[in-house]
Amino acid sequence: MVGIDDVARHAGVSTATVSRALSGNGHVSPATRLKVEASAGELGYVVSSTASSLASGRMKNIGVVVPFLDRWFFSSVVEGAQKSLLKNGFDLTLFSLTGGGGERRIVFNHFLLRQRVDAVIAISLELTTTEVATLHALDKPLVGVGGPIEGVRTLTIDDVAVARLATEHLLSLGHTRIAHIGGNEDVDRDFHLPTNRRVGYELALTAAGITPAAELFRPADFTMKSGYQAAIQLLGNPRGRPSAVFAGSDEMAIGVILAARDLGLVVPRDVSVIGIDDHELADFFGLTTIAQFPQGQGEKAVEILLDRLRPGQNQLSSLNTPMPFELLVRSSTARPGE
Amino acid sequence: MVGIDDVARHAGVSTATVSRALSGNGHVSPATRLKVEASAGELGYVVSSTASSLASGRMKNIGVVVPFLDRWFFSSVVEGAQKSLLKNGFDLTLFSLTGGGGERRIVFNHFLLRQRVDAVIAISLELTTTEVATLHALDKPLVGVGGPIEGVRTLTIDDVAVARLATEHLLSLGHTRIAHIGGNEDVDRDFHLPTNRRVGYELALTAAGITPAAELFRPADFTMKSGYQAAIQLLGNPRGRPSAVFAGSDEMAIGVILAARDLGLVVPRDVSVIGIDDHELADFFGLTTIAQFPQGQGEKAVEILLDRLRPGQNQLSSLNTPMPFELLVRSSTARPGE
DNA sequence: ATGAAAGCGCTAACAT
DNA sequence: ATGTTAGCGCTTTCAT
């Protein structure tokens, strides 16, 4: 294994200079830097990350914790983070809490206590005060994505505004009987989505002079199947059937479309459907939706963390950073029939 | 930060004994071990992974490389691997090659050369001989999952057998005009699925005395949309319409079901559909499929790697380990109408 | 079964 | 701008 002193010898400088030249920390004359880089390249030298970390205290590694991995939102955020980290020479250590229970404690005692990461991204996770405090005590920056963490900077779309926009789109088309399929308690516990989406829905309705009807709300668990089942109930009722459905996620919205078809209803002629996400399947189903950009959220999270890791830049930024979203009209929404 | 000598002092032993007691390497009397463990617990001691790695050369970290993350198969394998690694005290460093091109080289020069992992799992990736050689030279065990890597132990289902079983299921129901939607060249390049599935299909047909008809094969890219489009062509033809379709993946199979519905065909009365995977959506669509178990594949990959990492256990096992699969009959297949 | 001590390969403070 | 050098905190021979 070629080490730093091999390079130093070869380039005719000290190890310290090699370290400085290669890491970019400290001043090195351009000529020397070139010489060092040439030597390093020639010898095929690569720093030992362990030795470097031991000496510097930096790991160049950030931990990403997710509840599951096999969901579009989570894996997209992770991909975004990964991409951004790679560019900055950081590794991504993944912790998937699949299985629940014990896993979570193990993860916390495993990577927090072993100091293997410089910072942490928690996706759609509600950390306990203790967990946050532990991280804080170890001086590990933490940012959340898409989940409510007490007192921690969290990146998320403004759920109220998004739901409001979706509902207003339907309203503006002339719909007045608009149903909403939102999260149930289990979802809230598992995904920690703020139930704000329902709030935005009701706000939009009220602003339009419509009183939200209890029978037009259905809880579901964010899967296509649950969206389907909720929609069957909603649309199967021949009296007072809604002319439009706002689903809290695209997967549920697709379930609604499928249910409508099975009931012999044509979308959007008989019923309009709108979702949230811009899931990879949304385009195929012609689903109108409010797009959010999970990859961008992952990238942004990394950006914030790396900023905070840079010495001096210890400014605490605002706690809540609203992320962009965008109405994407496709063919599942239209003016109500007759 | 409480270090190993704090523990040593507190327990009244040497640092070497602490190290041995806590790591399980070397002999320590039960009494001493207990004393050390108590001290460590009391002081809240946790080894510094960097110091430990620097001294021992072990990282307790394995790298997982995937082409994408937001696909059911990939994220499931990763979840399986993660779960299994966690149990063994290993971290998982994720490398997603999303974006292609430069990313790949960076990854290879980034984690191979920095010695940050003890071993590598490559998922559905065709590594170049150079890449494999580099890993080999660095003495990093490597196992592939679901992709063909020259000369490397790879875990995968027997695609020929799987396709054959799927086709035979259809045959045994009495179908004779069986179409197949398989991968196109792009898929082959991106996912490196062996095109063996088509081979198995044709084998089954031939064995049943049926000559595979060219017009009953359609290439697609493994997405729902491409499955839909292929099926529209296949099923839209009023003459010689197949009575059954075997799709190379569940997502495509679901596309087929949707296409059938749009054409006014009833599944399985007018057309039977079978896929491969047991994707999370398969159940919802009542899709008959050949289940494969990606989580299990991830777990198995870890198991093999950890085995190889254990000193002494350097036995090279057989190169090709066929993974289990299983026919799951749901409601999308039946005897052909009249 | 336990202890003493020599590194592991680099970084960063200090000196020049 | 560059060199000298003392650690970083543990693991592992080698003794005992």
TrEMBL record, chains A, B:
Q: Which UniProt keywords apply?
A: DNA-binding, Transcription, Transcription regulation
Q: Which Pfam families match?
A: LacI, Peripla_BP_3
Residue ranges occupied by any HTH lacI-type domain in the UniProt entry: 2-56
Does the UniProt entry include the keyword Transcription regulation?
yes
Q: Which SMART domains match?
A: HTH_LACI (SM00354)
| CDD domains registered for this protein in UniProt | HTH_LacI (cd01392), PBP1_LacI_sugar_binding-like (cd06267)
Instruction: Report whether Transcription shows up as a keyword of the record.
Output: yes
Q: Which PROSITE patterns match?
A: HTH_LACI_1, HTH_LACI_2
Protein name, per record: LacI family transcriptional regulator
